[in-house]
Fold Multiple inositol polyphosphate phosphatase 1.
Amino acid sequence: MPVFWGKFTVFYFCVISCCSLNFVRLEDDLNIPAIAKYFNTKGRYEEVNPYLRDDILAVNTSILQLPSAQCREIHLTAIIRHGTRYPTTKSIKEMQEFYNIVRHNASGEQSWLQEIQTQWTMWYTEDMDGRLVQKGVNDLKHLAVRLSKLFPSLISEKNLRGGLIKFITSSKHRCVNSTLSFKAGLTELWTITDQEFEHAVNDALMRFFDQCTRFVEEVDNNPSAMTELDKFREGAEMKRVEEKIADRLGVEYSLITDDMAEAAFYLCAYEFAIKAMNSPWCQLFDEDDAKIMEYEADLREFWKRGYGHDVNSKSSCILFHDAFSRLDKAASENKLGQPVTEAVTVQIGHADTLLPLLTLLGFFNDSDALTSTNYATQTQRSFRTSHMMPYAANLVFVLYDCGGGDLRLQPLLNEKPVTFPGLDDQQHSMPLYQDVRNHYRHLLSGCDFEIECRLLKHPAV
Ligand SMILES: *[C@@H]1O[C@H](CO)[C@@H](O)[C@H](O)[C@H]1NC(C)=O
Ligand SMILES: *[C@@H]1O[C@H](CO)[C@@H](O)[C@H](O)[C@H]1NC(C)=O
Ligand SMILES: *[C@@H]1O[C@H](CO)[C@@H](O)[C@H](O)[C@H]1NC(C)=O
Ligand SMILES: *[C@@H]1O[C@H](CO)[C@@H](O)[C@H](O)[C@H]1NC(C)=O
């Protein structure tokens, strides 16, 4: 007995067991694929913060637990991933290849399969190559408005007009467009039409991974750095997913390779992220399959951007020092009773920018590495890019002056307060800035990009 209620369908099930009656209510938004929470870096921000599905501009200011009423925010740095984008050329080629298999070789009778074969058209073209889509423009506009509601004294019209909000971006078109979108979010909010705001392109900061020679040689261009990923892709869990896809399509097992399984997963993920559609492609996976696909992508990020290799996080030393030097500058200006000259810094980059930095800071550090053989024991892992790194993912540092020289630093990830790992026994939820500096003193006094990224003569094996 489905009850239609807007776009929601509410099912009531009466489950009668031998001597008790259980009333179970399942609420599903039929527009959202059941597997949407496993899309890794191809996931929507709304799946990470579901309250935004009802109101995309919703903020809850009481999440910020200020230790005293005296606390004033004096500086904010936001490091933000670009918004929703088209697939890259490489993914589009694979999606095209998989679509051809489904169109020409699939023999099943299911209605969703008929729908793909007779109604769906391959609308992705190679020239789309990772560009920002309209949903991505909105991601950043809305984020800008929410952050200004959460931190009204810093992200304010006065500070924007006064040049106290600085914008820095990666040179990639999707990042530049995301920066323009963030700015448009603010100028439209305050209907500013008489002034324009600059941004600086800085790849040394926002695409440090390309410029870190040791990372490029030892990880990015080194196939043996990804051994665990390769083994998982050839292993039993992935094979089972591939066979289930082949069975659902009624094609030979040999046609569904690991690349084709990935292309199928992308088709479901992109149709949802870009068009908000629960497309027939999503029928190719059940939740168990999706969790395996999610693990496969997490393995890649773990070994390429995360804890897998030390140089991954060390390549972000330059961004780490950049953030702390701004905080230090704001702290010392504030101490001298001067106004903070750079009230807000908005930096727009990539998942590849944020993941190494989060790793350097020690976030999502599980006790065991992700490997090809521990899928089953890693189901509770914290390193889960579906939660950490949707489109428009963001890490925000807010520096507060709580009176009497008491400076505190609040980190937020995707608009939720988090605690610095290893510093969570602090008295207040918001640690003293001095304690944060002390906690990361080994990085503040070291973590030299030039040294960490120098190619070792005798690489450790
Ligand atoms: C806002 O956040 C507070 C603290 O986390 C929570 O107790 C409250 O329920 C939230 N309010 C809404 C409307 O979500
Ligand atoms: C798949 O379909 C194509 C085009 O009809 C055909 O050439 C190919 O032999 C088929 N492959 C298999 C394994 O059935
Ligand atoms: C991105 O920026 C380019 C150049 O300014 C523009 O042509 C394009 O339409 C923009 N795309 C979106 C989605 O805003
Ligand atoms: C991650 O955890 C391991 C121990 O499980 C520890 O040795 C390492 O220092 C941690 N890394 C960071 C960056 O905190």
